[in-house]
Structure formats: C-alpha cells, structure tokens
Amino acid sequence: xxxxxxxxHSNEEIEKLQKSPEILSALGAFVTKGVTLKYKKGNPQPRxxxxxxxxxxxxxxxxxxxxxxxxxxxxLPLLFKFKDPKPVIVNISADTVQEFxxxxxxxxxxxLSEIVSGLEINVSCPNIKAGGVAFGTEPKxxxxxxxxxxxxxxxxxxxxxxxxxxxxxxxxxARAAISGGTDALSMINTLRGMAIDIYTGRPFLGNKTGxxxxxxxxxxxxxxxxxCFKKISQCKKGKIPIIGIGGISTWQDxxxxxxxxxxxxxxxxxxxxxxxxxxxxxxxxxNFVEKQNKKIADFIxxxxx
Amino acid sequence: xxxxxxxxxxxxxxxxxxxxxxxxxxxxGLYKIFRETGLKQGDILLEPFCGGxxxxxxxxxxxxxxxxxxxxxxxxxxxxxxxxxINLFALQDTFEKVNDYVSKRLLExxxxxxxxxxxxxxxxxxxxxxKSGNDIPEDIKINCTYCGFSKLIPxxxxxxxxxxxxxxIQPKFWYPKNKIHSRRKTKFNYxxxxxxxxxxxxxxxxxxxxxxxxxxxxxxxxxxVFTGMLYSCSLMQMFSKNQPTASSRGxxxxxxxxxxxxxxxxxxxxxxxxxxxxxxxxxxxxxxLDFVSISDSLKQFENxxxxxxxxxxxxxxxxxxxxxxxxxxxxxxxxxxxxxYLGFSEFWGxxxxxxxxxxxxxxxxxxxxxxxxxxLQRILSRIKDNTDPSCAVTLxxxxxxxxxxxxxxxxxxxxxxxxxxxxxxxxxxxxxxAQERRNFTAIGQYFLLRQTKKKTKKRFSKLSEKHKxxxxxxxxxxSFFANRPNQDRQPTPEKIRLHADxxxxxxxxxxxxxxxxxxxxxxxxxxxLNRNAYxxxxxxxxxLILSTHRFKIFSAAASRFDDSELKAxxxxxxxxxxxxxxxxxxxxASDNERNLIFCFYDKKDLKKEKKLKKIAERVNKxxxxxxxxxxxxxxxxxxxxxECRQNEWSVNWPRGFFICFDExxxxxxxxxxxxxxxLGLPFNNKENFYSKKKIEIFNATILKNSPVGEDQNSQHxxxxxxxxxxxxxxxxxxxxxxxxxxxxxxxKFNPPVLKSFSDFKRQSSCNITKPLSYLKRPxxxxxxxxxxxxxxxxxNIALPHSLATIAHTVFPNKFDIFYKVIAEGVGTNELKNLxxxxxxxxxxxxxxxxxxxxxxxxxxxxxxxxxxxxxxxPLVFFGQGLRYYSFKIKxxxxxxxxxxxxxxxxxxxxxxxDNPESSYVYIDDLLNIGxxxxxxxxxxxxxxxxxxxxxxxxxxxxxxxxxxxxQYESFIKKSSQRSEKLIIACGPTLMLKALMRIxxxxxxRMQVLMExxxxxxxxxCMSCVCPTKKNNQNQxxxxxxxxxxxxxxxxxxxxx
Lengths: 305, 1056
Fold this sequence. Notes:
The complex is a heterodimer of chains A (305) and B (1056). Chain A has helices spanning 11-19, 21-26, 67-80, 97-109, 133-137, 139-151, 171-180, 218-231, 233-236, 251-260, 269-273, 277-291; strands spanning 2-4, 30-31, 48-51, 56-59, 88-92, 116-122, 158-162, 184-187, 191-194, 196-197, 202-203, 209-213, 242-245, 264-267. By secondary structure, chain A is α/β, with parallel strands linked by helices. Chain A has a single domain (4-42, 62-192, 212-304), classed as Alpha-Beta Barrel (TIM Barrel). Chain A has an eight-stranded parallel sheet. Chain A has a four-stranded antiparallel sheet with strand order 3-4-12-9, with no helix packed on it. In chain A, α10 packs across α12 (277-291). By secondary structure, chain B is an alpha/beta fold. Chain B has 34 helices and 35 strands. In chain B, the strands form seven sheets. Chain B has a seven-stranded mixed sheet, sandwiched between helices. A seven-stranded antiparallel sheet of chain B has the order 23-22-26-20-21-25-24. A seven-stranded mixed sheet of chain B has the order 30-29-28-27-31-32-35, sandwiched between helices. In chain B, α4 packs across α8 (216-230) and α32 runs parallel beside α33. Chain B is globular, with a radius of gyration of 38 Å. Chain B starts with 8 loop residues before the first helix and ends in a 9-residue tail after the last strand. The model of chain B is unreliable at 1-7, 424-442, 453-460, 744-766 and 906-918 (pLDDT under 50). At the A-B interface, α1, β3, β4 and α11 of A face α5, α8, α26 and β34 of B.
C-alpha cells in the first residue's frame, strides 16, 4: 500500500532499515535511487538548499551513483537479506534511448534479477543535461523509451514510468507512456526550481537550478494524479495504476493522493527529516480507513464521484 | 554457536502440510539428534535416502553442508524446492499472474446457482457416491461469494443430470497418459483414471497455465503446489461422514484406495488453498535458511562454498567425494514395507514428466529379510569404506526389524542407542486439536553407529601431569563461557570443546583429540572451579598488561582464585588478602603512586551489587577525584558491560571503570603475541557489538543555551542538552538537530513516539513572513559529560595507556554543542531562541566512529588540534577522548577576536567575568580536559589595544597576531620527531589549504574534519559530498557517512 519514494540506495540506509523492523513492515515496496549504466559522479556543490517556511528543498544531485554493475554486486544483495522481502523497484535513468534498454536488460539478466520486481523509468530528472526532463516532455521519446525498456525485460518485471510535472498537460506524456506499454505510472518527479542567495547575488546551487520537492509540491502532484485519473480511461478503469509521489509527509497527504486516484503512494523528502514517517502514514491511513469500515480500494479516486 | 536454531513446532507443521510426501522426520527431533551427534557449522552430512527433505533442511539450518541422494525424482524435486530460499513477493506475483490467466476459466467448470441468492457461483466440492455401482453426484458444498451461504446440501434432482453433463468434458491440454507401475494398484491401469473428466480437464489446463506464465524457481514452487494438491482432486479424496465439510487428511493408505463416497474438489480452490499453505511454509523455511547454493556436480561441491548437492540415483552408485571429509551420515532406509514410495510418487511425477527408474527401487516389503539385510549391509559397508572412523553414522531403525541389526553388525558397526526421539506426530497431519490429544509417538529408534574395533585405552593417562593441568585449566574456562548466559545447565562436551579450541595452545591441540568426553565432564562439572579458573585467567592477563606499565599486583582474595590445581600452571605466588581500601575487592595493583582495585562481576552475582557499591563509596570518599585510587569491574562479555555502563546501573559503581573479557583478551594478544597470540576470538559471535551503527531519532532536553562573547549580541552560543540515547557517541561524530522546539504538551501525552513533524510545524507556520527550517541541521559534539564524573575529572585521570584502551566508564548523558549564529541563517537563529527545558528532536550519532585508541598502534604519540573559529568546537571533544588515552595534546586556536571567546555572564556576575583565568570558552574547556597553559596556542586576526581586550592568561609566546597556520608553521619548524605527530584540523577551507601546504613541506600527517551543508545525515541524499581522490580517480565522498574525518591526502584540494 505504501511505496517508498526514490530515496537512496546506499548500503548504510539499507542496513538501517534492516534494523528497524517496524518501519520496514509499513513499507509496501522499496524503490532505489536512480541507477545509470555507468558511474556518474554527480553535480558540483552545493547540492541542496532548503526553502523558506518549511515547505521543501531544492536539490541538484545529478544522479550520483556507481553504475548498474556495482549496484547489482554491492547493493542489490543487501535488499535480498530482508527477512520479510519487499518488492524491489529499481529506478533507472540514462542519457539515450538505447542506454535505457541496456540498463533494463542488464537488470533483467543479472544473477539476482528475481528480486527485482519492477523498474521505474526516470524520464523526468531535472538535474541532468541530456535526457531527464528533455525526454519527459517529448511524448514520442517517452513512448520509445518505454517500448525499448519493455522489450528488453521479461514480462514478470513491472514497468513504471515516472513522469515530470514540468509540462503543460500531464496527460500527454502519460498517454505516451501507456501506448509505449507501461504497466503503471508514478507521478510526480521534482519541479524545476531555483534559489538565489541575495547576499552574494548568486544561485545557491552548484548546478544553478535544481528540483523542488517537499510539501510545497503536493498540490501540484495531487492535481496531476487527478487529471490523469479523470482524463485517461485506462487509469480510471484501474488497468494502469498510478503511484502518487510528491510532498507527502502525513497520512492526510497520502489520503489526498488516494482520493485523487492514486493506487499507491511514495514518500521521499519527508523521510530525510523523519525516518518513521512510513510507519505513521501507514498507521494513520489504516486507522482512517478502518474507522469507516471500508477498504483502501474504496477510496481510490473518490474525489471523482 | 552451533545450535542457534530454536525448537519450532510451527516449522514442522508448515513443512508437513505443504506437501503430503510421507515419512518426514520432525525437525525438533532432528535438532536433538544433531545435538547428540555434535553436528557443527561447516560439517558435511551425507543423507543417502533424503525423501521429503526435512533432514536436509534441519542440517542446512545448522550451518552444515549436505550431500544427499535419492532414487526417487519426486523426492529430489521436493527436497530442492523445500530448501531453496525464495523471494516471496515474486512468488505471490507469479501466482497472481496464473490467477489472472486461468482462474476464471477453471472456476467456470464448477458453477452452480446459489440456493439462497439464486446467483451463479462456484462450489467447493461435489460428493459422489458409488453405492449403486454407478457414480452419482449426491451432495454439494456451496460457498457463495455473493451472499456468504456456506453449506453442504443435497443436490437437487434437476441439477444431477446437469452436473453429470458438466463433469463429462474432454481435457484440452496435455495430461499424463502413463501406465501405473506400482504393484499396489487398484482396478485402474492409468493415472488419469483417478480423476473425473472435469477435474482432469481443469488440472491439465492449470498445469498448462503454470508452465506458460511462471518461470525458474517460481515455476518449481507452483509445481510443488500443484502436486501437493493433486491427491485431493482425485477420486481418492474420501468423504468423511464425521467431518462432512472437511477434506481428508492426506494420503495415508498403503495403496491407491478408491472410497465408495468421494469428493470432486474444485481444482482452482484447492490450488489456491494449497498455495497459501506452501507460502507459509516457505516463509518459515526462508527464516531458517537464508543461504542455499546447490551444486550441479559433486566436483563443484568439493571445490566451492556450495552447501548442498543431491544426486538422483541409486545410493550404491554414489561417488564419494575425495577432497572433503564426510563427518556425519544420517541414514533412514526404507523399512516400512507398507508404502511403495517410488510407485506412488509416480502419481505426482507423471504430471511433471519425470522418469522413474524402477529397477533400482528398494521395496523391503517385496523381498525377503535376507535380501533386505544384504542390501543394507552393502550400503553401510560402502559408508564405512568411504568415511573416517570418527564419522558419526545415525541410523533410523524400525525397531522390530531384526534383519537391520544383522546388517549393521555384519557391516562392522556397533549400535549405540541415542536418546529416544519423541515428537508430536499429530501436528503433521494438521489436526486442529493437537493441543488436547498430544500423544507422543516414537517412530522408530535412532542409533548411533560406531565402528567395531578394539577400544583404545584412555590415552589420557599418557599425558604428563603438567599438560593435564594446563588442559584442565583451559577446559574449565571454556566451560565457564560455554554455558553463559544461562548457567544452570551443564554445557555439552561438544560445546566446551568448541570453546576450548580457541583457548588451548597450539602445541597441545593434538592432545585434545585423545581426551575422553567423560574426562572433560569430570573436569568441568564444578561451576565454582570453572569460575575460579576464569578469575585466575583475568588476573594473569591483567598482571601482564600492567607489568608493561610497572604496576604490580600486590593482593588478591584467595577465595576467588582458590584452586590448588591451578597454581601449578600460573606461577602466581600466594598474595596477601586485599586490605585497606581494597578490603572487599578481588585483587589490587599498585605502582607505588596509584592504586588500582579490581572486582569481578557477572549477572548471577546478585549479592555482589551491594558489595560493589560499598567499595565504590569507600574509594570515592577517600579519593576526592584525585584518581589516585581507581576501581575496575571485570565483566565476562561486552553485552553485560553495555548494561553496566547505563546510567541507571552505574549508581552501583560510580566513577568506576569497566573492563570486559572480550577486549581484555584482544589486548593481551596484542601485548604478548608470542605467548597468547594464538587465542581465538570471539567467545560469542557479538564481536561487533559496539561498532554496529545504532542511529536513533530521539528527544533531547535542553539544559542551558547561552551566548558566548562579551555582549548579548554575541554570535556564538553554547547549548547543553541531556540525552541518554546518544551514549555511544565518539569524537568526530555529529547529530542532526531539528531546530524547532517540540511542543511539550505532545511530548507529555506521547512520550516515546513522536507525532509527525509536520503537525507542530503547521501550528507555528501561521506567520508566513518568518522563515522556518525544514531540514535538520548537523552539529558536532563539543563536549560530553558523564553523570558520575565531576567536570574536569579527566585532568586527573592518568590510566596506564594499555589499560585505558580497554577500560570504559559509564556512558555520557549530557552534551555541549558550540555554534555560531549566522545572521541570515534560519536554523541557527531558531536554535538560539530555545530555552532551558525545551525539547528538541535529533538524529544521531552520525558519521564514522573513530577509534582513537588505535592511533597509538599507528605510532602517533602527539596530536595537534588546529581549529579555526567554531571549527575548534568538535576538536575539544577529540581532545577529551585523546586525553583519556594519555596522548600528548597541543591545541592551536585561530580566532578573529578574543572577545568572541569571552564567556558571557549575567551583569551581576560581572565581577567574576573580570577574572580572565576562567572565562574563555575553548581555553576553559581545554584546561578542563587536562591541557596545560603552555600547550594552548592562540592566533587572532584583529589587532586591538592591549587595554581594550582581556587577554586569556597564557604564556606570551603562545600568542600570535595573524593566521593560525602561520603560528603553526613556526611551531612545527622547531619540533622534531614529526612522524609521531598527527594533526586533526577543522575550520575554514582557506585555513585547511594553508595547513595542507605546511604538512606537505614538513611531512606531518593530517586528518581533516569536514563541514558541509547536509540534507539527511544518513547517506541518502548525497548533498554533503566532498571531492576526494581514490586510486587517482576523482570522485565525491559523502561527508556524513564516509567522514566527517578524512585523511587530508584523500581530499582533492584543487576542486574543493
């Protein structure tokens, strides 16, 4: 029911999760941070800035990771060690359409592929120059990427497409992803944003611009989920489930997403600040739903009725 | 630990229910047997007739490596499927896919109109009766999905013909057309005749769907599920009048039995139900078996770490491995002649297209006793020829079969009865009321087979008296540790041996093998003597450590070490009883200036706590923080020491130190390598008890938050807070602080669990013009305070260095953080406004833990702490730690203006603030942790008239006007032995870069504490990275988890 946000794939964090079973039990799935074909060192510093009034952060990490090979040998096995295994969804990213296919097929054919139960295609990261948003805003690219990825993996692996909110009409890339054959949609990635240090007159971030996340973007996310659910018939019929991500920090936020039409929700930024957020969101939603003697499925898309 | 697996009734219950393969051994019983035979981690066990696989499972879960064999391909399949860990989610997912693919069509076969709501629903089973000679459907069990109607009702007349029609369909997909080979067949010749046409059609369609949708391991499991429920979907599923709605318990009949009344089950529902059972079973087996690697060949098994190899062939042709030694054999030959395992297995195997080799089948019931005996004898001889005499052969024995006894003795084995293994057989059959009628049934006896030969006489007598004493001493210690923590039971000789292996000197190891178990038991049965041996060992070790620092043990309580047998080994003279201050202690040491008092403690000693308190009180009363007399408590394990160091417990031992045996032994290995280097570690597998990262989110209460500097507009603040959760913090580590106050009310109602962070943020965010923090802020710890130690105590402590590295005090519970408020900063401004009594939330301790004690191993003798501005704050904590380990310390402080260091006092206190001796932050702190004035150097950038500022009272030469790096350079120029020195620096990048140039020039090692803007503090967000060089490759390292302390060489200074 609760999907993890794209939050890290470091060894420490996995170890930490292993030691807190109650947090883990509230998790429905574990989504890793973006993995690319080759080692990527990331963007210059500073990489993170907080915005006023406790509403969010702007980050510009630039997909720092050691590449998919190192990911499979060093980090995937740790996820396998969970006592109560959670489905692992690997977030993948690349600079070209072909590379997307290569990363996907590598994960599909690696020794531990059986624990990878889904791939999240990142066609929306605002912090890399080629690809990222550039792909995400062009429907024909989205379609081609999804197609390529889908072709390079077995049917058993679910393909989720993570959409960018940096478009006029979210349903355009969403439709493109569906026609490319995606099994689910997740929205939204970070909004493009920027912060300027007025005392130096220069941008805060090393990369100048970044991606905004945190409570500030929740209304945007809820709206986009709502739009997709309303306008795209496959979503409405439940054939293509939507994973709502963006600014969730309380169970109330999560319920908003569910009522807008999301089937599952993911939490990212809030976890930095409050590691037990998963548990609380899960329990809060559970209480809310049980008090009304209903199932969570009864609330999906309730705002449309 | 060998027997880490707890007995688990449920485990066997789930295994037995997952598939109705016969004759599985109960896992609890097996654990008992393994305990008797001494199966250890890494041993190799051979199981010639593996059958249902529970022996393999139990042995693997004990860490053994297993070789197995069975002629029955179904047994091989079941064993493999049972033991292999699987991702449950992927499995469930595959099942859902099969469900999507086929379930609707299958359920369509079993539809009927619900008598209650008249809607079309599917039934659970149809009862057929064969009383009149023809099969007629009689009753039907409906479980309506719409109205919940669930009942067994007679079938309406009109429906009978309808169901007869429906039941008569042709299968569309493949199904086995094999002939039945078993000699116990009924009137049927083919397996498919056991199913109604409808079920045959449904089963073939289901199998087709599984093959199509699933792959790899998931497919195997679904096959397992399929075969598991196959029997219940056949004509053999009887209808019981006593429990009309239940299904029969499984295939227990010794033949293919066709009841006169049978159930025709809904195939999909049966599959679904069985899947759940198997899923539960796999959940259980996953828990106990997290790693199974199956070899493809025996060669691979021999040359790799793989822990399982199974061969599907006659055991007589089993090729024994040549390079590895089989130390255990568990043999459970077919002796119950009433089940035709192989012939019956074909009922399942035919569906999976398995090939059955009936030629090598051994069916004891069909041949004479002589032939059986010969067969068993050949098998046992083969085992005997290919294993060591020490190999433990366990034989499951059909007690009434005399031919087995003959075979055993003619194969050259003696029988030795093991304890009768009893278990509750009822669990296996899935009986609900197992608790009520818990009748234990012994199924067969188990015998340990020993090779018949002339018994060797006790070689023990050959040992010299000296060797005997030494061995006995170590065995006693091994026994002391073997039965911790529950000391009531006498540990098994195997367990003692296991511990003794790590203790006994290598030159005596060879003698250990010849010892009889009874000798060991004789030696170790007195737990008081065991404990005394342990005490004597501690005494010996400590005298060794102390002697390197010219300390001598001068008294020891005889009662604690009294063991006349021991004296022969460790030549410790009769020491006088402790007296004076140490009257109640166990032993005491001295170097004529300082006294050290030692006591033993372990959990069982309840009376001792009072005694300890008395000792500590007496010492503290006489000592007045001079630390001329210091108390040490020796505890047997790290965990117990951990408990003692908690603030609550430490009232018994205030201001005393704790030493644990684990660390003591490590230290002794270091000091006396030639003598004790062989000692094995650890006694308990929790070696990394402390090094494990324990990050917690917790509330801290602020005790003080006051500005530092000459006026109230000061930018520097010092905050003191109390938090027991931060106990394991080490120098260099930091905490992430949520700078907003937690509302007290909430904390009161919900003390342990914190409400969601956004709750209180929302309350306070009504003022939108005021910036609020969102992320937590990282702060380094400036000082740590210990409950029972007065401030400044560390000045007086001068423990011998090697003792200091293993001695611990209570955990700190109060901490200082020193911070600078940045004018436009959000977080620090919020922090500034917090008052005493407020609660704040923090996450910690974070960052890599530094082992300062290890620096001395690297040859470091003197440490220079160089701090620029607030950069000095964390270095004070370093100083505190280093001082404890008796390193020489020099501190260099770079500051813009002295006045910022001046401690702010309330106006009333002005008179005190004038006293320059004790009113400078850093300098105060450094003096408090035991630095002398001459060791503190200070540089200031702003020139001031001497009357304008109050200068700390330090020697004149320690002042410098300018940058701290300039001052340091002039200092290091003059000093010698630079390789023994280490710099730990923290401050502005420019200062660090300047220092880097100096260290390169003078070849001094430097470590740098990095400060970065952080997002999460736990290595997730990657925003705090710092450019580093590794193998000449540029990369970014995360300050929060890879640091914050870095070797200066690693950092890429050009890119910073």
